[in-house]
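Lab channel / #folding
Pinned by the channel admin:
"Please post every new chain as: sequence first, then the structure tokens as a reply. Keep commentary short and put observations after the output so the thread stays searchable."

First post following the new format, from NK:
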Amino acid sequence: MLKSEINLILGSAGLRPQHHFGQNFMIDQNILGAIADAGDIQAADIVLEIGPGVGNLTRQLAQRAHQGAVLAVDIDTKLLPAAKRHHAALTQVTWLNTDALAGKHELDPGLIATLRALKSQHPQGGVKLVSNLPYNAASPLIANLLMLMWHEQHPPGPPVPVPLLFDRLAFTVQHEVALRMAAPPDSRDYGPLGILIQSLASVQILRKIPPGAFWPPPKIHSALVVVTPSVEKIRALQDAPALQKLLQGLFSHRRQTLSNGLKHFLEEAWTPELKSRLTAAGFTLTARPETLTLESFPKLVSLLPIAS
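Reply from TO:
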């Protein structure tokens, strides 16, 4: 039934699945329900869906947030209008035709402005992301949403009038990306993405999803992941942008020692005095970055000359 509906909506716009947009449509009704359930959506919530495709998940989100709002954001200029026409009865859904990412480290300003306006209209509702995310954009989307929350809890000027603090991010992603998001220290998958996310939130992989749950089926398995942002972690982390820079620098050659990684990252700022300060603070410079605990990286940031 789902596949025939997908073909109907695609056919109405003269379309086929677009590989460059990462379009793999969910055709398993049970998993669609599991994604919606993972969002723990309450009636008055504001739900952000990135990559709604033909709108099969959108419909479930709208049914749950029936007193709130759903913001469905899609880059496809032909598919989104077709999905909007097909689901015209879902009056609580706002359809936004844009790329959710304005750049590698930036969310689309129009998306943020629309989401903030919906939050103003539904002040009692929580804000949640529930999405079957496009594979090619999933990692930067999750990282940027968490960084948005950090910036709004650490404003350089007056507080943001309507801050966006997501209660929950529930989404599908490539299984290997899910493993990186949840990886513990000293493991193969431990790296910048997981350290940043876990520094601001908790991560749980709910289930592995086979390729056959999608059409067309991808060549890899997916996973349903829940990321729960922590207000305490977000407020406690002093400089998230500097942490991001450090992680990218240290893990660009993940087999190098902490000393060599910092030497390449800091260049002329890597001095004997700085080495001595790090050693005195308890860092083993011959260790590899992947062996450091989660708490070690913010401490390292505080000791280094990194401009955020």
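NK: The chain has two domains: 2-236, 240-303.
TO: also worth noting, Residues 2-236 form a domain with the Rossmann fold fold (CATH 3.40.50.150).
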